[in-house]
What does this fold into?
Amino acid sequence: MFELTRDHEDFRRTVREFAEAEIAPHVAEWDREHHFPADLIPKLGELGLFGLVVPEELGGHKDASGEGGEFTYLCLAIEELGRVDQSIGITLEAGVGLGINPILTYGTQEQKERWLPDLAAGRTLAGFGLTEPDAGSDAGATKTRARLEDGEWVVDGAKSFITNSGTNITSLVTVTARTGETEDVKPEISTIMIPSGTPGFTVAPPYHKLGWNISDTHGLSFEGVRVPEANLLGKRGHGFKQFLATLDDGRIAIAALAVGCIQRMLEECVAYSSTRLAFGRPIAVNQGISFQVADLAVMAETARLLTYKAAWLKDEMDAGRRTAKEVKQAASIAKLYASEAAVTSTRVATQVLGGNGFMEEYPVARFYRDCKILEIGEGTSEVQRMLIARGLGLPAA
It folds into this structure.
């Protein structure tokens, strides 16, 4: 069975200290100004956070000792960043899980050597273009198309809600596109890397969002975008399988982000209810308050255990000791519970803080806005329930 080691906890402490010193003093202003702190990304790179799953020879911190556990370290980093601010947490989560991971997993050696050293160091960011205006949970309905013409892919289409896609350090976006049809007349989906600045590749203005105001999110459009045939990532027609596997990892990482949210709400409620006076005594003496805070402790513990069990299974799978099926089921369970518990935790925290919970000067308000997307991104709660049911052998649609 899994447990976090002393090295894991030391690493957690390092990330927490960094987040408290370098991020916490600025997040309220960044959130208010909808400012993406591009200068923070190299600092996260210097801390080694973007390179946790990348081999040393490609600029990362994963060694060849065979000890493994790199994905668990990544989840710890995401949790601790998310405890201070969810937008910063998702920037790391998407930067590694959606930016680095597809290239690391499916790229050629040449592709890895070209893109990964800068990404692992935090000098650049990459995005992953899957969702479209008319293709969300039904990602197989993608309308973006790519055709081969004179040794180049010509890409036309649009993507929506793409994280890390429009910063001044974004180096490329990997997109899924229809490249033909299969023998049974189904769409052939392939994955193609499109460098930033390629003619015809347009990044729309940033979205005006409910939350994650510090995160960089844009719509993208492609009009006659031409890239070399060698920019195909992995095998032609394997794009659907690639992004399904990518999302399995991402769901565990989103669960870690949710754990950070729940933990922060627990801490805020304990501190506030212990010092806020009503009728001459701390409000925590009232069971109506203390029982809600106790429930937050249960949510935090449960979400953390589910998340790190899934992360452990992922590391064990990478070492050849567990199966992808086990990871898929554990990832959906962790993501479903942790994301829904995170939304509940912010509602409880807002209630415990009363009127102050509705004020932007308190971080609870920011977390309240930020957390809802956790039930949507990397697969909705409905999709997770469907996948869990399938994993149980039920004839789920």
Q: What stands out?
A: The mean pLDDT is 95. The longest helix spans residues 239-275. Residues 49 and 74 are 7 Å apart (CA to CA).
